């Protein structure tokens, strides 16, 4: 196992946070609000508190992804660059999105919201994979 690219971890978390800002802001913020209504999803948090919580949890996710890429090794990733996107997207498709949908099904949350949130997790994880790839190649 090679060393974890800790700068890549931070950049990947920031990339996913930027995707979240766009996804739940100008791209799908209104559609999501129409689906859930104001305050319908449990505790109300201030936007700043939500951003801090989101950033912290994305940092944990990025750290685990950094360990995954370190385990594969820099030599392999240098030759097979697509593994960054395949592995990060695969995590979203095979683990995160099914877990999200199982949870949503149990809570009887609608398909529209499930698709919006699933799209974010796929885009966010792909952004993290891309950030690691760019940091490993040029960082």
Write the layout of secondary structure elements.
Blueprint: H1 6-27, H2 29-36, H3 47-72, H4 74-79, H5 82-107, H6 111-138
Large-scale geometry: elongated
The largest sheet, given as strand count, sense and whether it forms a barrel, is: none
Kindly report the average pLDDT value.
90
Could you give the distance between the termini? 19 Å
The portion of residues forming beta strands comes to under 5%
**Integer tally of domains:** 1
Low-confidence sequence ranges: none
Count, helices: 6
Secondary structural class: mainly alpha
Order of helices and strands: HHHHHH
The total strand number stands at 0
Please tell me how large the radius of gyration is.
Answer: 16 Å
Helix share bin: over 70%
Observed structural traits:
139 residues; mainly alpha; elongated
Would you give an account of this structure?
With 139 residues, the protein is mainly α. It has one domain (6-138). It is 83% helix and 0% strand. Helix 1 (6-27) packs across helix 3 (47-72), helix 1 packs antiparallel against helix 6 (111-138) and helix 5 (82-107) runs antiparallel to helix 6 (111-138). The mean pLDDT is 90.
């Amino acid at each position: 196992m090679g060393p974890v690219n800790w700068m890549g971890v931070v950049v990947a978390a920031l990339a996913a946070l930027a995707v979240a800002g766009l996804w739940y802001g100008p791209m799908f913020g209104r559609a999501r609000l129409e689906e859930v209504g104001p305050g319908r999803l449990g505790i109300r948090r201030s936007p700043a508190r939500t951003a801090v919580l989101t950033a912290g949890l994305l940092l944990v996710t990025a750290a685990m992804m950094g360990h995954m890429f370190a385990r594969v090794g820099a030599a392999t990733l240098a030759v097979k660059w697509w593994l960054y996107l395949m592995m990060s997207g695969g995590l979203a498709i095979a683990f995160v999105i099914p877990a999200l949908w199982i949870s949503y099904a149990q809570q009887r949350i609608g398909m529209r919201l499930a698709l919006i949130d699933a799209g974010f997790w796929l885009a966010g994880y792909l952004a993290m994979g891309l950030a690691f790839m760019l940091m490993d190649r040029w960082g």
